[in-house]
Amino acid sequence: MSRKRTKEVEVMSLNLTSMMDMFTIILVFLIFSFSSQDQNLKLDGDLTLPESIAGLDFKWAINVNITPTELKVEGNPIAKVRNGKISGVKIDKDKKRILPLYNLLKKYKEIENREKVNPTEDETVIAFQADKNLPFQLIDLVMKTAAQAGYPNFRFVVLKK
Question: Nearest to residue 122, comparing CAs of 30, 56, 26?
Answer without folding.
Answer: 56
